[in-house]
Automatic annotation (TrEMBL):
Segments passing through the bilayer: 48-67, 79-97, 109-128, 149-173
Signal sequence, start to end: none
UniProt xrefs under PANTHER family: PTHR23537, SUGAR TRANSPORTER
The protein's name in its UniProt record: YbfB/YjiJ family MFS transporter
Key words of the record: Membrane, Transmembrane, Transmembrane helix
Pfam family name, one: MFS_4
SUPFAM superfamilies associated with the record: MFS general substrate transporter (SSF103473)
Keyword presence, Membrane: yes
Amino acid sequence: MRAVMFDWTYPSCSAALVTYRSSLILCMATTGAMSISSNAWVWSAMRFISGTASGLVYVLVSSIVLDELARQNRSSLSGVLYGGVGIGIGITGLLVPTANHSFGWQGTWLELMCLTVLLGIPSILWMKDRAGGLTQRQSTVRTKGNRDRFFYCLTVAYGFGGIGYIITGTFLVELVTNIPTLHG
């Protein structure tokens, strides 16, 4: 089913690239959807979907980019990839208070969605497939079905790790402020 659904959208792309692109589009949509409602259940659902998609994007883009850097013998540039996370945190840290003051909370979510689309669309278009990340020798050993099964198992494993990372990062400040022994 997934193959039929995505073959039209992403012809001849690996499962990793299809999942990356689809997850990034889902992040864009759910970021904008945060402005629709103030209902706690709707928000919880949107944050869960967005967090899961965001975790997948983080894990998959790391894998895809680091593999490509290694293929080009440029692994020393891996810090640039992770520096982008810090730059993103800095930009949103500056943008959110200004946007909230000017547009309110709903406008802030819409502005963040626009920023996500502005930065995400080039990433979707520029990210190229490299035969599913497998070398020529490996691709002759594994059949497509085994490779897809392996990818899905790996995605689930890394996805749980990514979700754990995102959830911990999201709520760490709240957890620390509720521990009296850590107060200064």
